[in-house]
Design goal:
The complex is a heterodimer of chains A (656) and B (417). Chain A is of the alpha/beta class and 656 residues long. In chain A, 50% of the residues lie in helices and 8% in strands. In chain A, helix 24 (497-506) links the parallel strand 2 and strand 3 (510-515). The radius of gyration of chain A is 26 Å and the shape is globular. With 417 residues, chain B is of the alpha/beta class. Chain B is built from 19 helices and 11 strands. Chain B has helices at 2-16, 23-40, 48-66, 71-100, 106-109, 116-123, 126-132, 137-141, 146-163, 166-200, 202-205, 219-230, 247-257, 270-273, 299-308, 330-333, 346-357, 394-401, 409-416; strands spanning 210-215, 235-240, 261-265, 279-283, 286-287, 293-296, 313-316, 364-367, 371-374, 381-384, 387-389. The chains are: A alpha/beta (656), B alpha/beta (417). Strand 9 (612-615) of chain A pairs parallel with strand 3 (261-265) of chain B, so a sheet runs across the interface.
Chain lengths: 656, 417
């Protein structure tokens, strides 16, 4: 373990220092990314740009860690609930596990023998989350309650306080509807016994704790890599120090989820995104439901292959949510509005969704006031987390949104404690604006500039759906006076192509409109295919609007070059091979009903039939060999270079 | 005769208005129509086969011109011509045999064409034997197609006329028509039952827990799947809806009502789902001589996806869909563009169209083809009512059904008219 850690710590910085030179990257862009550092983002020196940011936190001792963790766990039961909500949909591990168990562990004195057990335990549960049962054979309940009790049983018996706490907690663990805040209340009685310790915690320690917890949470955000400060700080530490840190019991427990305090673990997992919530895991789905703000009923006829994805009855959430407009106290109205927009399908385009979300967050941050006795970095993260979970309930996040949230959270985590609340808020808002500006708006401009060079006079350009970047490219090329024709291929049920068609035709572009099935008919005429993408994964798979793969395939078969236009902030280090393991399912009724075609009503009477399933996939995965080129804000690259961009620019991308 | 003409006109009108759809219905209609044409056709004593062929060609030409894309009509016309030639040939050889062996009289002739090989094998000389066989590779190689048979018949008719007197004549003329109509009835019956015959093979191709994907709707596919279902095979079907006609909805409804586990997907999800599919089973509009398929729009995409994932792409086609022509640029030449209103609401885009009209050419085109061409390399197997065949074998199968000199039916008709 230690040896691996040590080697990892050595290797990793090396990897990061490898320079990746992109001549195409606009200079202003490069300068506009202040590096991650301890200081305020605005004050980052340009010199630090090329170096990987390394943060060295104050040295800690196990006991101190202990106490800081307790302070974190005790005060805000409400918050833990929110956190739980925020995470539940994205990763398949439950944040309450780590939170509650960490709060429990803090109660017990750090007996070294126990510590190692804990460490092992957390390690174990990392790898097989559901197998943690072996540590607590007495308790049949799976999930978080389970871990909770198991931890206690391992650690229990040291003091009477603990054994007292243990019983109610065990009871609650078996009751599924006991929310995590109950558990943290259970944890509270032990608080007084450790008050003296708490008093000793220094500000920096508390901060370190918060960072680590936030890191754990950011990690939980399905985005997988959470190079939160705690991580980088750990990476910078020498192995001996790391060992020390990993021995600390609370951190070990926290790492059960994400390995916050174990640099080696973190480093190792860095490239492995956290597993997502799997909806065929009944117990977790149950728990998630308890916390859900939006009432969703599960679809009756779920498609067998997609049981791991949420399949809900549609049409019920929107009115339900609208009626709750004034009841949802924790929800900022701006966020609520965006959620309703997602639900109603008003904002469907990827960038649009991302921008709407970020703007809502920025509004929410502006209106935010830190409650008494809370720290802005911590409370705000929880707040954002609850917003995100709400948005997820309205519609699952796209990868780009996940990246944006990751960015925002990392910004919050890195807020210097010296900043006043208003300063912090202003800095966050400007960060958000900058993200929107640079990662989306400017990136699009760069892409448009690159891509228009690929349009020649006489070209026939095919596009599928209504990707906003491609629309910009076409308009720009048209404004440049290039003579070309556009073929818009569209498909049910969304038919976004029609709106694109309308916009292009009114701008005076020559358009041909057809449906997806006819793509091999029209492909003879086509000389270029421009596609948008929701995300490009690091194995080169283009994760995009469903049907994109078919278009790319046909183009490939007809030897027509396929250009995928995608902003780099949508790149993701996750890998995927097919469109089934992860996807989003739309309203199945959209498949059965054909608007405007009264004669197509064969399925109207069959809604209730058991053996009829309707599948409305939202995305599919285009194999990279169909893609000739990816046009991104870092230049034009082959799809195989996506992981390089992800690796080399991730830091910069995340921290701006 | 006039009533036949009115029938023909009626059918032509239907074809032009695309009122008859689906190759099975069309081919059945065509066969019935040609049967009545033949039965009404007065034939003289000489060159009876020639008269019939001319009559059928004349009608066939009109029918084909009415809807050139509906290849089934042309197929049936060619089939009928082929039947006439065959019957005539067999009658001639029988007559020759009758001449040679006077002991074999009319009642032997009544047994029809099927028995003739036996008869010939028993009695007829080697020369007549070769003409009796259905057109085979040998005849093709020898370049002795039925074109030579037609003059041969007329001459032999003359011979028989000269030798055996008037009683024989009347029976022969009646006989040719009678046999042709008999054979036509068989053909019509074949067309009617081709679904069942294809469906009978279902169990040989579908096993338990199979996942099958299909696009659009085809009665052949429906019956094929149902036949497998009736044999207690449990499997799952993905039905792509087949925009813009959405026949897949219809198929899904039928399958569901017969208790099959059915999932309806959008066409765009085909690529996503094909990796979990064991077999693609689709119907066809027509099968060309090179093994290529004229299929409902969207199937080329499905076939490409199937090829990518090494999923067998199986085409079900009754023998009336076998077209003896080789396709040239079939995506365009053998296609039909349907109304744009299936894709776009005109009210919505009328302003765009107006905008374009000022520039001379409209800014907006809407393309809505109804067929796709699937090249033979993408097809794994054809299942016809005569069994399963490789795409590369199609040309041979076609030689069984059509006479070589009918292939150019259309052009000949066009030049003559």
């Amino acid at each position: 373990m230690d040896s691996r850690r040590a080697s990892r710590a050595v290797i990793d910085p090396k990897v990061r220092h490898v320079g990746f030179v992109t001549p195409n990257a606009p200079p202003d862009r490069a300068q506009s990314f202040p590096q991650e550092s301890n200081s305020s983002p605005l004050s980052a020196s340009p010199a630090s740009n090329t170096l990987s940011p390394v943060m060295i936190p104050p040295p800690r001792h196990p006991s101190e860690n202990l106490t800081t963790f307790r302070t974190a766990a005790i005060p805000v039961p409400e918050q833990t609930r929110l956190r739980a909500e925020s995470v539940v949909f994205e990763g398949s591990y439950d944040p309450t596990e780590s939170l509650s168990s960490s709060s429990f562990q803090t109660q017990s004195p750090p007996a070294s023998s126990r510590l190692f057990v804990d460490e092992e335990f957390s390690e174990e549960s990392w790898l097989h989350r559901n197998n943690s049962a072996k540590f607590a054979s007495s308790s049949p309940a799976p999930g978080c309650g389970f871990n909770l009790t198991s931890v206690k049983e391992v650690s229990g018996g040291d003091s009477t306080v603990i054994s007292e706490v243990k019983k109610p907690a065990e009871a609650s663990a078996n009751e599924k509807n006991e929310a995590s805040n109950d558990r943290s209340k259970n944890a509270l009685p032990s608080g007084p016994s450790s008050k003296s310790l708490k008093a000793k915690t220094t500000k920096s320690e508390r901060r370190a704790l918060q960072e680590s917890q936030r890191a754990a949470k950011a990690a939980a955000k399905a985005q997988g890599n959470k190079p939160a400060p705690a991580a980088s700080s750990k990476a910078a530490k020498q192995p001996s120090q790391k060992k020390e840190a990993s021995i600390a019991p609370p951190s070990a427990a926290a790492s059960e989820k994400k390995g916050t305090d174990r640099p080696s673990e973190r480093e190792r997992k860095k490239d492995a995104p956290a597993p997502r919530m799997q909806f065929d895991d009944k117990s977790r789905v149950e728990k998630a439901k308890k916390r859900a703000l939006v009432n969703q009923t599960e679809a009756r006829n779920r498609v067998e292959y997609f049981r791991h994805l949420p399949q809900y009855e549609y049409g019920t959430q929107l009115p339900d949510l609208q009626s709750k407009l004034f009841q949802l106290d924790p929800m900022h109205p701006a966020v609520h509005k965006v959620g309703l927009q997602y639900l109603a399908g008003d904002v469907t385009e990827d960038n649009g969704r991302c921008i709407a979300m970020l703007q809502a967050f920025s509004e929410a941050i502006r209106d935010y006031t830190t409650p008494d006795e809370k720290v802005i970095t911590r409370d705000l993260t929880a707040k954002i987390g609850s917003y995100v979970s709400f948005l997820i309930e309205c519609r699952p996040l796209s990868t780009s949104m996940g990246n944006a949230i990751r960015f925002l959270k990392s910004r919050i985590v890195k807020l210097p404690l010296t900043l006043s609340e208003s300063e912090a808020k202003a800095s966050l808002c400007s960060d958000i604006d900058r993200f929107i500006n640079e990662k989306i708006v400017l990136a699009d401009k760069v892409i448009v500039r690159h891509a228009t060079t690929k349009i020649r006079d006489g070209d026939v350009i095919l596009t599928y759906g209504a990707p906003s970047v491609v629309e910009m490219i076409l308009t720009h090329a048209h404004e440049l006076g290039k003579q070309f024709r556009v073929v818009i291929v569209d498909s049910r049920p969304n038919l976004e192509g029609q709106s694109l068609l309308r916009r292009l035709v009114t701008k005076g572009l020559k358009c041909t409109y057809t449906h997806l099935n006819a793509v091999s008919y029209i492909m003879h005429e086509v000389s270029r295919v421009f596609l948008g993408a929701s995300s490009i994964l690091s194995n080169g798979i283009v994760y995009s609007r469903v049907g994109t793969a078919s278009v790319a395939m046909v183009a490939h078969a007809f030897c027509v070059p396929v250009l995928v236009c995608c902003e780099a902030y949508k790149f993701h280090e996750r890998v995927q091979l097919d469109s089934i393991c992860f996807n989003e399912l739309g309203d199945p009724n959209d498949v059965a009903k054909v608007p405007g075609r009264r004669d197509i009503n064969y399925l109207d009477s069959l809604d209730k039939k058991e053996n009829l399933q309707l599948l409305n996939l939202m995305y599919d995965a285009t194999p990279s060999d169909y893609i000739s080129m990816v046009v991104t804000d870092y230049g034009m690259i082959p799809p195989t270079s996506v992981p390089v961009i992800v690796r080399e620019y991730r830091q910069e991308q995340l921290w701006i | 005769m006039p009533d036949v003409q009115s029938l023909v006109n009626e059918f032509i009108l239907k074809l032009k208005k695309r009122k008859v759809e689906g190759s099975q219905a069309t081919s059945r209609h065509a066969a019935v129509l040609l049967r009545s044409v033949i039965s009404q056709q007065r034939i003289g004593y000489t060159n009876q086969a020639g008269t019939l062929i001319d009559a059928v060609k004349a009608v066939g030409e009109q029918l084909v011109a009415a809807n050139p894309v509906e290849l089934a009509v042309g197929n049936i016309v060619r089939r009928v011509l082929h039947i006439i030639r065959e019957e005539d040939l067999s009658l001639t050889t029988a007559a020759m045999a009758g001449l040679n062996l006077s002991a074999l009289s009319d009642d032997d002739d009544d047994t029809g064409p099927v028995d003739h090989p036996v008869l010939s094998a028993a009695a007829v000389a080697a020369a007549s034997r070769s003409t009796l066989r259905p057109p085979s590779l040998q005849t093709l190689l020898e370049d002795m197609p039925d074109s030579t048979a037609v003059p041969h018949t007329s001459s032999s008719g003359g011979d028989s006329e000269g030798k055996s007197k008037s009683a024989d004549k009347s029976s022969r003329s009646r006989k040719l028509k009678h046999d042709v109509i008999e054979a036509l009835n068989e053909l019509i019956q074949d067309i009617d039952t081709c679904h069942e015959q294809i469906a009978e093979q279902a169990v040989e191709h579908i096993h338990h827990n199979e996942v099958i994907l299909t696009l659009g709707s085809s009665r052949t596919v429906l019956q094929f799947l149902c036949a497998a279902r009736e044999k207690k095979r449990s499997f799952r079907v993905f039905v792509a809806e087949g925009a813009p006609r959405y026949q897949g909805h219809l198929l899904a409804k039928e399958l569901v009502s017969r208790g099959l586990q059915t999932t309806l997907i959008t066409d765009s999800a085909v690529f996503a789902m094909i990796s979990r599919v064991n077999m693609v089973i689709v119907g066809a509009h027509a099968v060309m001589a090179n093994g290529g398929v004229i299929a409902p729009v969207g199937l080329n995409m499905v076939a490409l996806a199937a090829q990518r994932h090494a999923v067998p792409f199986v085409v079900l086609a009754g023998s009336h869909k076998l077209c003896p022509l080789y396709p040239h640029n079939p995506e365009v030449l053998l296609n039909e563009l349907r109304s744009p209103s299936e894709l776009l609401d005109f009210g919505e885009f009328s302003d765009c169209m107006d905008f374009g009209s000022g520039l001379g050419s409209p800014l907006l085109h809407v393309v809505n083809p109804s067929f796709d061409y699937v090249p033979p390399k993408l097809v794994s197997l054809f299942i016809t009512d005569t069994g399963g065949h490789n795409p590369s074998y199609m040309y041979r199968l076609i030689a069984d059904y059509y006479s070589a000199d009918d292939l150019v039916l259309q052009r000949k008709a066009a030049s003559s008219s």
